[in-house]
Amino acid sequence: MGVEGITAYRVGFSALILLAIFRPWRFRLTRTDVLNLLVYGSVLGMMNLLIYRAFALIPIGVAVAIEVTGPLAVAMLSSRRPRDLVAVACAVLGLYLLLPLQGSPGSLNPVGVAYALGAATCWALYIVFGKRAASLQGGQAVAWGMTVAAMLTVPIGVAYSGAALLAPGLILTGLAIALLSSTVPYTLEIFALRRLPQGVFGMFSAAAPAVSALAAMAVLGEHLSLMQWLAIACIVFASALAALGVRR
Predict the structure, then answer these.
(1) Angle, vertex CA 99, rays to CA 202 and CA 43, nearest 5
(2) Beta partners for 246?
(3) Range scoring the smallest mean pLDDT among 31-45, 55-69, 138-152, 232-246
(4) What is the C-alpha separation between 216 and 194, in angstroms, rounded?
(5) With the C-alpha atoms ordered 217, 92, 196, 83, is the resulting torsion angle positive or negative?
(6) Is the pLDDT higher at 248 or at 145?
(7) Confidence category of residue 50, pLDDT binned at 50, 70, 90
(8) Do 33 and 133 meet the contact criterion of CB atoms below 8 Å apart?
(9) What are 4-27's pLDDT values in tens digits?
């Protein structure tokens, strides 16, 4: 199916499920709400598409380690303590060890790295505008946001994957992926964003690179080098350290 097809499944099915559950059209939106939701949904769709493109070119754990620097940047901007300098240094060291700066034979695919960095930017914007949209009643924000994301990604998926999207077995797989990776997590996240400062929320993603790398190793047989594990550890440590500096 390709990256575009699976992204269309994930986001498209999630949008349909969330619209059916929350029925957001029952509530009136202000102009500010609409603008926030358009940005929130757009970056949500692009974040999904870009990170799947990165997964196709570089190891999953490495891609997520790069992507999580987006929430890390949000947390750093929300914090005001000297220890933040240490966190920044750790994050920069981790990126230096990951990014293909030396052009060595074992370095990462630069296009894959660029996709992961793009996903990191989208994740940062997702937190900022998700926080603004989280004030909406019930699950309006995630339902409308996922709908906007679907309007962006589903046409791309159809253009790339075509009739493959209609295969019954793949449809069931796509529905399961949508539930497990988008519908449930994003719904929980939007409620969390309503109750937490955006910097604190961002830091709950600190363990994502390590968890992703372990899952990829167990399920897909992806094995990272010692240097890549060290880089992931630096970014995870930077995220955890930054969490300590975020104001309540």
Answers:
(1) 40
(2) 79
(3) 232-246
(4) 31
(5) positive
(6) 145
(7) very high
(8) yes
(9) 999 999 999 999 999 998 898 888
Cα angle 84, 78, 48 (rounded to 5 degrees) comes to: 105
Of 147, 188, 158, the closest CA to residue 13 belongs to: 147
Residue 153 vs residues 8, 39, 41: alpha-carbon distances, Å: 6, 14, 10
Domain layout of the chain by residue ranges: 2-245
State residue 83's pLDDT score: 72
pLDDT value, residue 105: 46
The encoded tokens of residue 46 equal 């692009």
Q: Is the pLDDT of residue 205 over 70?
A: no
3-state secondary structure of 240: helix
Nearest by Cα to 55 from 230, 182, 214, 213: 213
Which stretch of DSSP H or E encloses residue 28? none
Q: Which two tokens stand for residue 13?
A: 């099915």
| Predicted TM-score (pTM) of this structure | 0.84
Q: Where do runs of H (alpha helix) occur along the chain?
A: 2-22, 31-55, 60-67, 69-78, 83-98, 110-133, 140-161, 168-178, 184-195, 198-203, 208-220, 226-245
SS3 at position 40? helix
